[in-house]
Predict the structure.
Amino acid sequence: MPTPKTKPVEPRSRDADRSQLAILLAARDEFAQHGLGGARVDRIAERADVNKRLIYYYFKSKDELFLAVLENAYADIRAAETELHLRDMDPAQAIRRLTEFTWEYYIAHPEFLTLLNSENLHQGRHLAMSSRVQEMNSPLVQTLAEILERGRADGLFRGGIDPVQLYVSIAGMSYFYLSNNHTLSAIFGRDLMTPKARHERLSHMCEVILGYVLRN
């Protein structure tokens, strides 16, 4: 009697991966547009073209789905930073490139900023529960620490620079400007998002960051 063939599981696994990716992308857009409080699972299901029950099957709750979206957002930017190959550059070039990249990435991915805005409204409670995010950020901090030490050893950088503080400054200068460009443009009476204004801002940021790390 012939042995019955088992059904292949790979196609089903691929379908599950596609469904989860569709849900995460739809959820990212929904959370970015409406925040965690205003987001609706019904709309996410409609955007992803899946049954709402499937969302709860994979992610259990809206809060767990929001955390998964945040983790994916951080994974994307950390992966893009890895592609810069900062360790292959001289220290000053690496710091400048990281500053440029951060600015360019935030402009290209405004949803990243709005997701962070929403999580900050909830006092970072979702990210505080994630071990993945800390693991993803550790290589960046280590890379930056190595670049700073190499620059110090070469006599280019001053010593005692905290890589976390430096990265917070790089990210913060981009984040504040872009997140608040509407109010800043209104109170200063000029469009801070014109190509000229954005070029001036990036030049200013690079000068400030390099002026801090370079020895006088």
